Amino acid sequence: MTDWDRDSRTATQIIRGEAPGRVRIRTEPVLPVIRPEVNGSGTETRPVVFDIRDMGVYYGGNRALAGTTFSIYRNLVTAVIGPSGCGKSTFIRSLNRMNDAIPGFRLEGQILYHGHDIYGSRANRVEVRRRIGMVFQKPNPFPKSIYDNVAWAARNLGLKQRLDQRVEEALRQAALWDEVKDRLRDSALSLSGGQQQRLCIARAIAIEPDVLLLDEPASALDPVSTAAIEALMHKLKHRFTIVIVTHNMQQAARVADRTAFFSLDSTGADRTGTLIEYGDTETIFRAASDRRTRDYVAGRFG
Ligand code: ADP
Question: What distance in Å separates the CA atoms of residue 240 and residue 168, rounded to the nearest whole number?
């Protein structure tokens, strides 16, 4: 068993409240309280979930992303914003190895997740996806019942005990339980778009991940459903670390604690995306230090 396997078992057992047996116990609380975590000189002391080091991405011979270095912290919502084609989706999909299947995809640099190199030779891709869940732009429920959608990943992982309880808990966390509790056997496709997206969130959190990656989760939804998803993010960050890609700057300002602004290197023919600025959302929107960030958030390009 590698350290990676040992750690992941431990985290699962603790979340489930089970005895850890022979594996090491993590000391972090399952439902941490969110509070400012900076030391006297203003340096972040909050635990780092992703430590991204000089990350670059190629699709074949084309470089989509270069020189990206920053840290994503626990129990915060981190928004990734920037003009179309700057690599936002590439970036977020790289955080749980969702790009692996794309022919020609290659990542350079490192993405450390709780200190583990998720592209390292000892990383287990299945485990990465289990710990780091993802929800996409377009709601994509399976053509199965509401219940079976939420139970799907748990069943696949062999987590069959107390399945009803697991499904209910996930639906409650996704703020969908009250709307569907009397129709769990109905097709998920009978739900509205907004409900389907909350179902996808329930499906992702039913296996108790640590991180939720949301790639434009509300861009296909009406304003009421969008507001419901945003409210949900404020609630869920107490339990999960959330990274969201959004092209909607107001949404980033409403939901995110931290914001990373990516843009394209517009000089010459090289159209490589890169991280321009990262910081507190308020600073990025009101007092960014880079002119390109200020221009983008003011709507002057993109
Ligand atoms: P954004 O999400 O900011 O719009 P993307 O990450 O989708 O940006 O795209 C960044 C760059 O990577 C673009 O030049 C795009 O054409 C390229 N790209 C994205 N996905 C693929 C893919 N599957 N194959 C080849 N190139 C891709």
Answer: 18
